[in-house]
Design goal:
Largest sheet: 2 strands, antiparallel
Shape: elongated
Order of helices and strands: HHHHHHHEEHHHHHHHH
Number of domains: 1
Helix content: 55-70%
CATH class: Mainly Alpha
Radius of gyration: 24 Å
Low-confidence stretches: none
Strand order of the largest sheet: 1-2
CATH architecture: Orthogonal Bundle
Length: 297
């Protein structure tokens, strides 16, 4: 008979890696994350992944259907659609990440400051956030783009990023403010104030770390919204301009003229936008469920 020592019987279970734990708890979110990683790798290494130069014109292959030579066909200028979609992923991720980081970061800072100081400061900030929230997202982004114009830097339009980020600020500020209000009323915050700590020390060391979870959730979710807004503005001619490969831009212009003759010019960019937005939404929802203790059993 084999004897089991008490130490072996009651040995605590070794914690799993957070990624493995997340994959077991949220398989759909992990699927979304896997697609995001593939999209990111394809965008970063587009020079090696894409079979053709997305800007090269080939009038001998205009409107060529999908084939072994051109997997997703060509457009009205003979440019390879598959290559342009891969390079378009770089544009979509760059604009989406920067716009979401800018909007979520400013919104989180405003939410924490509003919750901490309260009173007239909180009321003034909240009324201004209400004004921004009263405008539909696309209308507010259109207005900002029309006012600011274009300011390209390194192949990206900084004013486009600002226009996409501004509608995100009030939403993030509201969510972070709610989380910060719950923390502000805790005893250790009162103790820090009684000890004479400066406001910046209390905000950065005691409040801000406790609102990281809602910030990450909003940041991830708004990348999908930023990608969709960038595609919408590019489709309307107010976003990325030719010849830069961009998914929304691929849906406009000659694609509308040849949609019956060459439907792949609209089909594949539309699928790319849908899958990217769907993947970020899946990952964002899974991250919310994983980080929020109310969803854990």
């Amino acid at each position: 008979m084999t004897m089991v020592s008490p130490d072996a019987a009651f040995r605590p279970r070794q914690p799993r890696h957070p990624v493995i734990e997340f994959a077991r708890a949220q398989p759909t979110g992990m699927a979304g994350l896997a697609f995001i990683v593939i999209l990111f790798v394809a965008g970063v290494f587009a020079d090696f992944v894409a079979p053709y130069d997305p800007l090269t014109l080939d009038y001998g292959a205009m409107l060529a259907p999908p084939s072994w030579e051109h997997w997703m066909g060509t457009d009205a200028f003979g440019r390879d659609v598959f290559s342009r979609i891969i390079y378009g992923a770089r544009t979509a991720l760059a604009v989406g990440f920067l716009a979401s980081l800018f909007g979520s970061g400013i919104g989180a800072a405003i939410g924490v400051v509003s919750a901490y100081f309260g009173g007239r400061i909180d009321m003034a900030i909240e009324r201004f956030m209400d004004i921004l929230l009263s405008f539909p997202i696309i209308v507010l982004a259109l207005a900002v783009v029309a006012v600011l114009g274009k300011f390209p830097v390194g192949g990206l339009d900084l004013n486009l990023i600002v226009a996409i980020a501004i509608p995100m600020i009030p939403k993030v500020a509201r969510v972070v403010r709610s989380a910060a209000l719950a923390i502000r009323g805790l005893p250790y915050i009162d103790a820090a104030r009684a000890a004479g700590y400066h406001h910046s020390r209390i905000i950065f060391r005691h409040i801000a770390p406790n609102v990281v979870a809602p910030f990450l959730i909003m940041f991830t979710a708004f990348i999908a919204q930023a990608i969709l807004l960038e595609a919408s503005l590019s489709f309307l001619g107010l976003g990325v301009t030719e010849p830069t490969p961009a998914w929304g831009l691929m849906l406009s212009g000659t694609s509308q003229e040849f949609y019956s003759q060459a439907p792949w010019m609209i089909l594949f960019p539309g699928v790319a936008i849908s899958l990217a937005v769907f993947a970020f939404n899946l990952f964002g929802d899974a991250l919310r469920d994983y980080l929020d203790p109310r969803f854990k059993v």
